[in-house]
């Protein structure tokens, strides 16, 4: 995964060094497909639902980081001076999160996204904002000393949403590069009769793609 991230960053830098296709305003429209490499910062917070008359308290926040690799397909159209589009993506990787002072561990898994974006060209670069639906895996593992029935009925696929933004720029011919930040937040998961876990990701992504 780390090698994939380095490769994507190198590809972007190499593409910038190449002369872009001769055009004053690159056409950021039409269907596209891209390869993505992502730095994945994962956070989890644990909530005791019995405290404060059921309102609960948060504590023992923990986090970890890793790298993912994936892809995205999309379609963009011009809307006056703006560019709007839709996309769907998938990323694959695993980052472990230890539950502090608790006999279990969570492993993140695949992440899937569907959403829409809108942006404007400035000096030949498309600057955009994005938002949509996320579905991420949060796999529970019982460690030594933990109850084997602790996660009975636990659903490791968590629905959620994401927001973010980035910059897309023409490289050579129909190739383009992209740098992007995305924040994902997922539904809270019940892990016992008195405890929940919240789950989020902050992603920095380098991508290289092709328009058709």
UniProtKB/TrEMBL annotation:
<comment type="similarity">
    <text>Belongs to the Omp25/RopB family.</text>
</comment>
<feature type="signal peptide">
    <location>
        <begin position="1"/>
        <end position="22"/>
    </location>
</feature>
<feature type="domain" description="Outer membrane protein beta-barrel">
    <location>
        <begin position="8"/>
        <end position="212"/>
    </location>
</feature>
<dbReference type="InterPro" id="IPR027385">
    <property type="entry name" value="Beta-barrel_OMP"/>
</dbReference>
<protein>
    <submittedName>
        <fullName>Outer membrane beta-barrel protein</fullName>
    </submittedName>
</protein>
<dbReference type="Pfam" id="PF13505">
    <property type="entry name" value="OMP_b-brl"/>
</dbReference>
<keyword id="KW-0472">Membrane</keyword>
<keyword id="KW-0732">Signal</keyword>
<dbReference type="InterPro" id="IPR011250">
    <property type="entry name" value="OMP/PagP_B-barrel"/>
</dbReference>
<dbReference type="InterPro" id="IPR051692">
    <property type="entry name" value="OMP-like"/>
</dbReference>
């Amino acid at each position: 995964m780390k090698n994939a991230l380095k490769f994507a960053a190198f590809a972007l830098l190499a593409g910038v060094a190449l002369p872009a296709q001769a055009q004053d305003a690159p056409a950021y429209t039409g269907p596209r497909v891209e390869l993505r490499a992502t730095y994945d910062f994962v956070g989890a917070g644990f909530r005791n639902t019995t405290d404060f008359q059921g309102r609960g308290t948060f504590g023992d926040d923990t986090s970890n980081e890793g790298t993912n690799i994936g892809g995205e397909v999309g379609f963009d159209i011009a809307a006056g001076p703006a560019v709007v589009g839709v996309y769907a993506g998938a990323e694959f990787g695993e980052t472990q999160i230890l539950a502090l002072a608790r006999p279990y561990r969570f492993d993140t898994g695949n992440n899937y996204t569907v959403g829409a974006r809108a942006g404007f060209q400035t000096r030949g670069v498309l600057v955009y904002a994005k938002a949509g639906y996320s579905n991420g895996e949060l796999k529970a593992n019982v460690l030594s000393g933990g109850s084997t029935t602790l996660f009975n009925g636990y659903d490791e696929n968590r629905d959620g949403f994401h927001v973010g933004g980035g910059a897309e720029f023409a490289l050579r011919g129909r190739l383009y590069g992209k740098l992007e930040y995305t924040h994902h937040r997922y539904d809270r998961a019940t892990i016992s009769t008195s405890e929940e876990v919240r789950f989020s990701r902050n992603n920095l992504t380098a991508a290289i793609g092709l328009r058709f």
